[in-house]
């Protein structure tokens, strides 16, 4: 069993391969881009999945994800990628200077679509809080800033296998994998 995963982010592919292994699903990585509309994660993932499945004429998944910080009115959220490339982790820490409520969530939405069908989406969330400084060299992007709830290590201090046990991506990919493997019914 195989699925096309359309993304330009190699870290996402590494995490997905790890998770899909348990389901016997092989990841075919294609970095062919797709239009990312301005909107909520679910809208972006749905639109992207429809677009690529019709271009490729094959079933595909895409993922839209982000870091949502409560005290910043859930910024950077859908702008996560842009914010990471511009102000980066140091910029986020500056915005969080003297902020006591450090609650944050990572959210991931997997969008699946096969040609000429409606898209299906799967949401995964992990709760946590923002650190006071960057910690760890593992993972990518905001990982060194994020303490998952109940952990004394940031995502940046966890190896892929550990992060994958409970990450937002794990939850979304696992929901998708269960459905794809057992319930899809076609
Ligand atoms: P594709 O759209 O090509 O899949 P991308 O990196 O642009 O790759 P998104 O549009 O989903 O991915 O942007 C999400 C951004 O949110 C991502 O670039 C990171 O900055 C951040 N992000 C998402 N998941 C993350 C994670 O597990 N760890 C750290 N940062 C993450």
List keywords for this structure.
Maf protein, 186 residues, alpha/beta, 25% strand
How would you sum up this structure, described in words?
- The protein is an alpha/beta fold and 186 residues long.
- The chain has one domain: Maf protein (Alpha-Beta Complex).
- It is built from six helices and seven strands; from the N terminus they run βαβαββααβββαα.
- Strands 1, 2, 3, 4, 5, 6 and 7 form a seven-stranded mixed beta sheet that branches.
- Helix 1 (10-21) crosses helix 6 (168-183).
- The two termini are 14 Å apart.
- The mean pLDDT is 96.
- The site of inosine 5'-triphosphate has 21 residues, from strand 3 and helix 3.
Please render the helix and strand layout as text.
Layout: E1 2-6, H1 10-21, E2 26-30, H2 41-56, E3 60-69, E4 75-76, H3 80-86, H4 88-95, E5 103-113, E6 120-130, E7 146-148, H5 160-163, H6 168-183
Parallel strand pairs: 1-2, 1-3
Antiparallel strand pairs: 3-4, 3-5, 5-6, 6-7
Bound molecules: inosine 5'-triphosphate (ITT).
Residues 7-9, 12, 63-67, 80-81, 84, 106, 139-143, 155, 167, 169 line the site of inosine 5'-triphosphate (ITT).
Let me know the largest β-sheet: 7 strands, mixed
The total strand number stands at 7
Could you give the distance between the termini? 14 Å
Structural class: alpha/beta
- Please tell me the CATH architecture by its name: Alpha-Beta Complex
How many DSSP H or I helices? 6
Give the averaged pLDDT, no decimals: 96
Shape: globular
**Total domain count:** 1
Query: Could you say which small molecules are bound to this protein?
Result: inosine 5'-triphosphate
Provide the β-strand percentage band: 25-35%
CATH uppermost class:
Alpha Beta
What order do the helices and strands follow? EHEHEEHHEEEHH
Radius of gyration: 16 Å
Residues in helices, as a percent range: 25-40%
**Poorly predicted ranges:** none
